[in-house]
What we know:
By secondary structure, the chain is mostly helical. It has a domain at about 100-150. Helices cover about 55% and strands about 5% of the residues. It is built from six helices and two strands; from the N terminus they run ββαααααα. The protein has helices at about 35-40, 70, 75-90, 95-125, 125-150, 155-175, and strands at about 20, 25. A hairpin with a 2-residue loop joins strand 1 and strand 2 (about 25). The longest helix is centred in the middle third of the chain and has 27 residues, at about 95-125. The radius of gyration is 45 Å and the shape is elongated.
Amino acid sequence: MGATHGKKKEYSLQSACHKDNGELAFNGSASMYSEIQRERPDIGNIMAHPDYFDGNPDLIKPKKLLNPVRASKSHQELHRELLMNHKRGLGVESKPELQRVLEHRRRNQLIRQKKEEEEAKKLKSPFEQELLKRQQRLEQLEREQEKEEENAPEFIKVKENLRRTSVLTGVEKVA
């Protein structure tokens, strides 16, 4: 069921009872109590009146308490920002779809990578771990040698190439 806001609509052509010349004219409503339901009883006679309406200046009149959350600056700024975003048609978490998908993929990739690393650590024995460390050291040494060779002058590179070719031709003649 949904919430109804405002007054209910009446669907008959004549919505109220008409009194012409002292006679009641019914609007075709099936309920005999429809007229009674429309008339509101006077609640002012039933309710007790508060004491502070006396006009006594010595009495302190009660004031409505302020909600400290709603009175705070940060809450007001947040509310203002939400209203502006609502007017513009933006949601609270409005990111472009592509950006959301990319962030989701990155998150999933990091989670997968962490799981793989944990599984790899669990499965390896101490011997395999030591072999892996040695392999990483050798790879690092090879990278350092390649960097040194790249930084070396060109004539040294040519000289090394000549030595290699002379060694290769000598080995080929022997075989």
